[in-house]
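Changelog entry

Holo records now carry the ligand SMILES as an explicit input line rather than a separate metadata file. Below, a converted record for NAP, shown in the new format.
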Amino acid sequence: MNLLILGANSDVGYATARLFAERERANVYLASRNMDLLEKKATDIAIRHQIKATPLFFDATDYDTHQLFYTNLEIKPDIVVLCFGILGNQEDAQKNVSHAREVIDTNFTGALSILEVIAEDFEKRGHGVIIGISSVAGLRGRQSNYIYGAAKGALSTYLSGLRNRLAKRGVHVVTVLPGFINTKMTDGMDLPEKLTATPDQVALDIHKAFQKKKNIIYTRWFWKWIMLIIRGIPETIFKRLSL
Ligand SMILES: NC(=O)c1ccc[n+]([C@@H]2O[C@H](COP(=O)([O-])OP(=O)(O)OC[C@H]3O[C@@H](n4cnc5c(N)ncnc54)[C@H](OP(=O)(O)O)[C@@H]3O)[C@@H](O)[C@H]2O)c1
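Structure line, unchanged by the conversion:
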């Protein structure tokens, strides 16, 4: 089995690569921008799990390179996990459309650009699993991060459409909706301990979703119920809350 992790320097992405190497004996392509980090991670994972790990340069927002990036993969992947993303800064994004675009281009346009290339190949082969990491932030806009949330909402809708298109071709698409995760993205934030997952816990949920062919998962599981409550709050009340 060959696994491609897009945004493999993400803490969740690396934890997922390690878990699939251990449990599935998967050979892994680790694709991201910071090659120094990737090379260290690839060496570590290959030695630890006795699998093949290949570091690759990939920039989600350099759309014109995506087709060639995929064409150049010697062995095509069976599973792709899309992990890259940026949280950005909400206030900056409100004032500066170029930062807003950076958030949308990385989290959404970059995802659709590379996934369309991969989807075409998986569709032809009638085989493959695409796992996209979105966010519960995309389920309802909040003042603290609605530009990131809008990008993730678009990503979730996109993944739903992709699943609908590819299901008839034997290709499975999983949407992952994490709540808080303790990673470099949330470094320095005051997150509620009991509601915050580790990257390893998220990786375990992703692996379980892969095995059970789930369509949409919340990670950790309790976010399903938290979001049911949050989404159920009438807009007249919701707009008065400072969330
Ligand atoms: N952390 C959370 O609380 C949380 C909650 C909900 C959803 N999520 C989502 O879960 C996913 C993983 O998050 P994480 O917390 O593990 O992230 P992370 O540790 O902050 O890592 C994100 C990675 O994205 C990569 N990246 C950013 N822009 C890129 C680009 N243009 N091209 C290629 N790679 C790029 C970076 O790779 P390089 O270092 O190589 O540049 C970075 O290492 C993200 O999609 C995130 O939005 C996270």
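Spot-checked after migration. The pocket of NAP is lined by residues 7, 9-12, 32-34, 58-61, 83-86, 106, 110, 133, 135, 178, 180-181, 183-186 (CB under 6 Å). The beta strands are 2-6, 27-32, 53-57, 79-82, 129-133, 172-178, 180-181, 196-197, 216-219.
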